[in-house]
Write a structure and sequence with these properties.
heterodimer; A: 210 residues; alpha/beta; Rossmann fold; eight-stranded mixed beta sheet; 8 helices; 32% helix; 23% strand; globular; B: 407 residues; Rna Polymerase Sigma Factor, Chain: A; two-stranded antiparallel ribbon; 33% helix
Chain lengths: 210, 407
């Protein structure tokens, strides 16, 4: 699991957008919260009540230094410790693709929280498609820095896959935000081609966006 | 207290070193003078009660920086610093208490308290029974973790502290930490239970019972009435040897001793001490009987057996209902006496009560006693946690993190 602990800091630029989705004073749980920076910011700037779950020894201690209450251990196990609807928002930033059982994680997120904010690298991005098509090798770039043999990413998906997943699971897609590899926002037009990173806010229930 | 014998004392922790609590003085507080004796959980009354303690650092003018340290089965109030320049070792948790250490005596007023039932300066079975003028022996009333904590509360009040910034202890010290947080929620801003459990497991009770039976099977024990005569050294030494095995881990025993022989090249085919691990255990047993009272061992181990927070209120979740402290719960990966899952039960019940809780599992091969050994993870977790608690108590930042509306 050590590979998934070293997430490039640049990926964390999606923090700002995630932060914009969190209301003031919200009760927030961040899964795979890393060094606790996002939670510390939410606590400090928005008066949120933040909790984290993180498996990495060093990152956990950084959370403690920041004064962020953190659970040192497995995500599914840590989620199980919380009661239903204990949080307003549960965040899963750039980690969905590394979870062993994404449906279970998402189900648990929406059990302990009213809404879930999930960001992930979009495997449908044109560069990924092109790399595979032209080089015939597994995509490898700044956002996908691993090789097939050492990647912690076991469940990649595309924007289209994720939308379909939500629809089939009766999950409402309330907000969709798309970013390029340089963290520029792109519109929803051809998002599955153009977005390197996708951020979804989902809730339980039907009534999906178009 | 155990394998720390082999740990060299850092230069900075030696007397006069920059990180040493320095020369410290054993102190004692006596209260519950008759007719106002302390009412014990077992229904009997005890008084007067003396509690041994030490303090390190200064209480702030606002009296908001007091941290209570509580010890395990065989510990004492001498947690840090040196009693005399001739001492071979500093206090039992000197590695984390002192100037610039995690329990930083430049910032915190550290109180280290002994327990009633003990034999290290506090009222216990080896103390004089005021009614007979002779040592109590088994006439001493049974004391529980609650009784120990209620006595500590009297001490803390006596020292002018109404609310502890934090308290910490490992093993049975963790029992006391949990008891404090449940019993006196308004007096505990934060708590750091280490390598502990909300109730002693069946395995823990079983091991305690073997230790007790070893003591009571020693003819010198004489029904507990051995004071002034030869004490039950053999029984107490066996109890200690069993204890020591449980404080270590398989990996650590293998690494430290392996199958190496002590002072010989080949087997003697007899029952003398041959293996290094035997020699080590015998040494631990023999040195323990010189400093510990067998009856205290019986009483204290029994108090551990009785400890059961979940049973008190129906469940651990309910037991933690009134808790207002924030928590740093620490377990040790190789601890098989108080395994990590037992700490996780504490964490789970705290989280169900919306108590701000951080959980850290120390990665260590040293077993249960790892919290007594130098460990960077332990240091960072404790120092970071305490600094943030002090900041919050003094009103700086992170508002709304409390349990009142917390997650």
């Amino acid at each position: 699991m050590s590979a998934l602990r070293k997430r490039p800091t640049k990926l964390r630029l999606d923090y700002e957008l995630i932060e914009s989705l969190i209301p003031d004073g919200a009760r927030v749980l961040d899964l795979g919260c890393g060094d606790g920076q996002l939670l510390a910011d939410l606590i400090e700037r928005k008066g949120c009540q933040g909790r984290g779950i993180e498996i990495d020894d060093k990152a956990v201690l950084e959370c403690v230094q920041r004064g962020v209450p953190v659970y040192h251990g497995d995500m599914i196990e840590g989620l199980g410790f919380y009661r239903d609807a204990q949080f307003d928002v549960v965040i899963l930033s750039q980690t969905l693709q590394q979870t062993m059982d994404p449906p279970k994680v998402i189900h648990e997120m929406l059990r302990v929280g009213r809404r879930a904010v999930i960001s992930f690298p979009n495997f449908g991005h044109w560069w990924v498609r092109l790399q595979l098509l032209l080089s015939g090798r597994m995509p490898h770039n700044r956002l996908l820095p691993y090789h097939w043999y050492n990647t912690p990413n076991v469940h990649f998906c595309t924007v289209k896959d994720f939308r379909e997943f939500c629809d089939r699971q009766d999950l409402r897609r309330v907000v969709e935000i798309f970013l390029t590899a340089r963290f520029q926002r792109v519109t929803h037009i051809l998002a599955n081609w153009r977005a390197a990173i996708a951020i979804f806010q989902i809730e339980r229930g039907r009534e999906n966006m178009g | 207290m155990s394998i720390d014998d082999a740990v060299p004392i850092a230069e900075s922790s030696r007397l006069g070193g920059a990180q040493s609590a320095g020369l410290v003085r054993p102190q004692a507080f006596t209260f519950a003078e008759p007719p106002n004796e302390m009412e014990l959980e077992c229904g009997q009354r005890l008084g007067p009660v003396t509690l041994a303690y030490e303090t390190y650092g200064q209480l702030s003018p606002q009296r908001d920086n007091a941290v209570l340290i509580v010890h395990a089965l065989s510990g004492d109030a001498h947690a840090a610093g040196w009693h005399s320049p001739d001492d071979k070792k500093p206090g039992w948790w000197d590695i984390v208490i002192g100037p610039g250490k995690p329990f930083d005596t430049n910032r915190y007023f550290v109180i280290s308290s002994n327990i009633i039932g003990g034999c290290k300066g506090s009222t216990g079975p080896s103390s004089t029974n005021p009614r007979t003028g002779r040592p109590w022996g088994l006439a001493f009333p049974m004391v529980t973790i609650s009784d120990m904590v209620r006595a500590q509360k009297a001490l803390v009040e006596h020292l002018g502290v109404r609310r502890l910034l934090s308290l910490s202890g490992g093993s049975m010290g963790g029992f006391q930490v949990l008891e404090w947080a449940v019993r006196y929620p308004e007096c505990v801003a934060s708590a750091i239970p280490i390598a502990t459990s909300a109730r002693l497991s069946a395995q823990g009770i079983a091991l305690n019972e073997v230790g007790r039976q070893a003591i009571m099977a020693d003819p010198n024990w004489a029904g507990g009435d051995y004071y002034g005569r030869e004490p039950p050294k053999a029984g107490l030494a066996i109890a200690r040897m069993i204890g020591h095995i449980t404080y270590l881990s398989d990996q650590q025993m293998h690494a430290k001793f392996g199958r190496r022989l002590q002072d010989r090249q080949s087997f003697g085919y007899d029952f003398k001490t041959e293996f290094q691990v035997e020699s080590y255990l015998r040494y631990q047993g023999d040195s323990f009987v010189r400093r510990f009272d067998a009856n205290s061992y019986l009483y204290i181990s029994k108090s551990m057996d009785y400890f059961d927070l979940p049973a008190r209120r129906g469940s651990l979740v309910q037991a933690f209902e009134g808790v207002r402290a924030e928590f740093l719960v620490i377990s040790i990966s190789s601890d098989w006496l108080y395994p990590t899952y037992q700490s996780k039960e504490i964490v789970k019940a705290l989280k169900a009560n919306l108590v701000p809780t951080t959980f850290v599992e120390l990665q260590s091969d040293y077993g249960h006693d790892a919290f007594l050994l130098p460990n960077a993870q332990l240091n960072d977790a404790v120092s970071g946690f305490l600094a943030n608690v002090l900041r919050r108590v003094r009103g700086g930042g992170h508002g709304g993190q409390g349990r009142a509306n917390g997650a």
